[in-house]
């Protein structure tokens, strides 16, 4: 999360005040009888309840009844239709704008918001991505009907309503060659017209850990006992589920991206990890089974040359067979050079925020309020002001289990540092075991304003590093510091702006091949709701005995299946397109401004993000349906690429099995890896002599029949000049291809430090904008 709760509430109140005061002003010159009541959600401060009222319900009712009658003489003061008391405090009631305007001025009333919650989706992402039943990619692709997505992950929980097949009329596609592999707790009836196949692979992991899998933790079947695979599968292609949510959070209608696409689950990950042998076996089988898209939310913590990377090798073969592979960029941000799954034939996806938050205020005894996030659902603190301690003062700054002084923690809220390699929920549980009644987690400094919500076992919230420092100062200067929580539930809207780049999302430049810009795009990956396993609780802790049908989690693992589902729908809309063409359509139509019209913000730094964080930009599904031009890549192009990065015959043979590639032949003789027909550019000015770099590209017209004239627009950085020849491309037919050359001229002298700048080119006609980002790198001169 990027904007504090107090800021978002203040912004909402300001906007609402303007709107409501305007309504009230208008009412002075027009009858109040003309105002129509609507449902408003009223958020109140629990701590501000006047003592004269025995309960919050009495306070709410009395306040409503005390509204001046003249504000709406033809509409009586509304009665409460719903009271919120577990995760936030407030109520819903019918009010006229004038009544709401008066109500929000009362002490303790934090926000009065029009009931926009009825438009809520649980993932929220279909709405945020602009997907509509009336036009665009959903109807244009028939919701991905009959397209098969292979999800390589931790398996699947078939009982989830996200995998019901009631909306799928067609039988399983005849081209499907896969099976529903059964196990002790996964009968063949687990599959249906939605889950059309399921397999599991464990031999590699057993060989790696040198013992048999513990079947109390890991079911030797496709069944998901972790939750990750179920979540990603439902995001890519989950069926419509009404009234879904994590307790009271994000409640609404859940939809995957391609709601009518089929799912084939390949379980490759276990409690001990995901073995390379198992990954390769699953990729190989998935292609043989007949999947159209592979969704791979898995990656290595270390980066290897492509020929040593099992995912790169397996996915190359997939691309050659016409199967697009989408993969997560990794969660190793915000450090540079950490993006994984970086081969050019993989669609690499970074993570960003959406326009939804789960705020929780941390209120100190001196009245100061710090905005955090939380998914806690349960009883509130017994005391409105509970004593507060810093974990460093009672045994373990990181709140490591068993190291907190139980006498000092008992009955208190404990502030824990977010580091130490210990999960947020795990820290909260450590506090609980030590007798604490609440927990505040200090976010790591490098994560800046990003806050990932957690379903704590005790009342708790995560705050920014900066705010945590202020809380520590408060603890140090008070004889008896206290705090309390105000859980505000689900908040939607354009403030704070979205998307923003997740701090955890792995960034470029591409460590393996600098001339290939990675990640390719960003997609929603922060606090995403999806289906969950029935085997573990929402925190995935062994002590968490709660069971939920949906869970909210974050990671590039969540952004990857969004793009998997979008790619599946493009495959349906354009069955003859190559994986590279589908990828190009989503890259060149991606947008680069947030919903406030500003450049994307990097949550780690608070500054504008660059293509090393967001790639070509944020996916725009409906525009991708009509991209105008695509950058296609043929198998021979990849052969030339492998030659250009100086792979020898043995290394190349890992990728190309049906022939021997001769790197001295004309079709593989290229200037360098930057000449691959990629939809983005990463240019290296190698000292001391490479001040001019040239690349060639070929674009194919996939627009409507008839003449199409595209003109180029260049955005130059300050230290380089970019020129394109020709500057006008005239197409006379659909599927016609034309080439152009782009020249990058350095205007900067070599230095002893790495320098980077960014630009772009756009090919435009009357209906399309085909955009390619450009990254320019000046390595240090030695």
Question: Can you walk me through this structure?
Answer:
The chain has 782 residues and is of the alpha/beta class. It has 5 domains: 5-119, Alpha-Beta Plaits, CATH 3.30.70.80; 125-353 and 504-514 and 525-592, Rossmann fold, CATH 3.40.50; 359-488, Glucose Oxidase, domain 1 (3-Layer(bba) Sandwich); 634-673, no CATH class; 677-782, Immunoglobulin-like. Helix content is 22%, strand content 24%. The strands form 9 sheets. Strands 6-9-5-12-13-14-24 form a 7-stranded parallel β-sheet, sandwiched between helices. Strand 18, helix 10 (406-409) and strand 19 form a beta-alpha-beta unit. Helix 8 runs parallel beside helix 9 (310-320). Residues 399-471 form the PA domain. Residues 213-234 are annotated as: Disordered.
């Amino acid at each position: 999360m990027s904007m504090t709760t107090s800021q978002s509430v203040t912004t909402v109140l300001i906007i609402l005040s303007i709107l409501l005061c305007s309504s009230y002003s208008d009412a002075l010159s027009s009858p109040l009888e003309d105002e129509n009541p609507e449902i408003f959600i009223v958020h109140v401060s629990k701590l501000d309840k006047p003592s004269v009222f025995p309960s919050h319900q009495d306070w709410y009712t009395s306040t409503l009844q005390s509204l001046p009658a003249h504000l709406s003489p033809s509409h009586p003061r509304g009665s409460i239709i719903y009271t919120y008391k577990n995760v936030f405090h407030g109520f819903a009631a019918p009010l006229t704008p004038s009544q709401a305007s008066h109500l929000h001025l009362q002490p303790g009333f934090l926000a009065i918001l029009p009931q926009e919650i009825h438009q809520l989706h649980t993932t929220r992402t279909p709405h945020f991505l602009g997907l509509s039943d009336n036009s665009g990619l959903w109807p244009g692709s028939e919701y991905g009907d009959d397209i098969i997505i292979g999800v390589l992950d931790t398996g699947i929980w078939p009982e989830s309503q996200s995998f019901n097949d009631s909306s799928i009329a067609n039988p399983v596609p005849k081209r499907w060659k896969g099976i529903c592999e059964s196990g002790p707790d996964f009968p063949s009836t687990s599959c249906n017209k939605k889950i059309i196949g399921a397999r599991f692979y464990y031999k590699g992991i057993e060989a790696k850990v040198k013992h048999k899998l513990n079947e109390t933790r890991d079911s030797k079947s496709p069944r998901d006992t972790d939750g990750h695979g179920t979540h990603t599968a439902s995001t890519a292609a989950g069926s419509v589920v009404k009234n879904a949510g994590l307790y009271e959070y994000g409640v609404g209608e859940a939809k995957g991206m391609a709601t009518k696409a089929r799912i084939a689950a390949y379980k490759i990950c276990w409690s001990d990890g995901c073995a390379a042998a198992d990954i390769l076996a699953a990729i190989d089988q998935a292609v043989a089974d007949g999947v159209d898209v592979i969704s791979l939310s898995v990656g290595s913590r270390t980066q290897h040359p492509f020929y040593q990377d099992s995912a790169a090798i397996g996915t190359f073969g997939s691309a050659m067979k016409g199967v697009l592979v989408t993969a997560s960029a990794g969660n190793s941000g915000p450090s540079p050079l950490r993006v994984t799954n970086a081969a050019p034939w993989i669609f690499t996806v970074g993570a960003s925020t959406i326009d939804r938050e789960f705020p929780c205020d941390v209120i100190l005894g001196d009245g100061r309020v710090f905005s955090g996030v939380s998914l806690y659902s349960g009883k509130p603190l017994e005391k409105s002001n509970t004593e507060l301690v810093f974990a460093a003062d009672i045994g373990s700054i990181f709140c490591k289990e068993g190291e907190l002084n139980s006498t000092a923690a008992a009955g208190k809220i404990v502030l824990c540092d977010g580091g130490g390699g210990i999960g947020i929920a795990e820290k909260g549980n450590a506090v609980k075991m030590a007798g604490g009644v609440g927990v505040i987690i200090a976010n790591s400094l490098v994560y800046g304003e990003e806050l990932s919500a957690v379903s704590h076992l005790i009342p708790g919230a995560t705050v920014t590093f900066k705010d945590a420092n202020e809380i520590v100062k408060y603890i140090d200067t008070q004889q008896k510091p206290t705090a309390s929580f105000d859980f505000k539930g689900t908040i939607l809207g354009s403030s704070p702006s979205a998307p923003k780049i997740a701090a955890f999302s792995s960034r470029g430049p591409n460590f393996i091949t600098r001339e290939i810009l990675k990640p390719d795009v960003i997609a929603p990956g922060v606090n995403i709701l999806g289906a969950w396993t029935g085997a573990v609780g929402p925190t995935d802790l062994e002590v968490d005995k709660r069971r939920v049908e949906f869970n909210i989690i974050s990671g590039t693992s969540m952004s990857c299946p969004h793009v998997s589902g979008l790619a599946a729908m493009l495959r349906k809309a354009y069955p003859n397109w190559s994986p590279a063409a589908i990828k190009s359509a989503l890259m060149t139509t991606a947008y680069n401004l947030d919903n406030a019209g500003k450049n994307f913000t990097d949550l780690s730094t608070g500054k504008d993000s660059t293509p090393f964080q967001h790639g070509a930009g944020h996916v725009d599904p409906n525009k991708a349906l009509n991209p105008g031009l695509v950058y296609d890549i043929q198998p021979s192009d990849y052969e030339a690429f492998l030659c250009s990065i100086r792979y020898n015959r043995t290394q190349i043979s890992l990728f190309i099995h049906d022939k021997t590639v001769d790197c001295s032949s004309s079709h593989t003789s290229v200037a360098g890896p930057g000449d691959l027909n990629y939809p983005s550019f990463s240019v290296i000015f190698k000292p001391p002599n490479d001040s001019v770099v040239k690349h060639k590209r070929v674009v194919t017209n996939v627009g409507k029949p008839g003449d199409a004239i595209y003109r180029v627009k260049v955005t130059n950085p300050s230290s380089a000049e970019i020129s394109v020849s020709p500057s006008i491309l005239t197409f006379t037919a659909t599927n016609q291809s034309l080439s152009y050359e782009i020249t990058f001229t350095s205007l900067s002298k070599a230095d002893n430090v790495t320098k980077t700048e960014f630009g772009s080119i756009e090919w435009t006609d009357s209906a399309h904008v085909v955009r390619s980002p450009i990254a320019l790198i000046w390595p240090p001169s030695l």
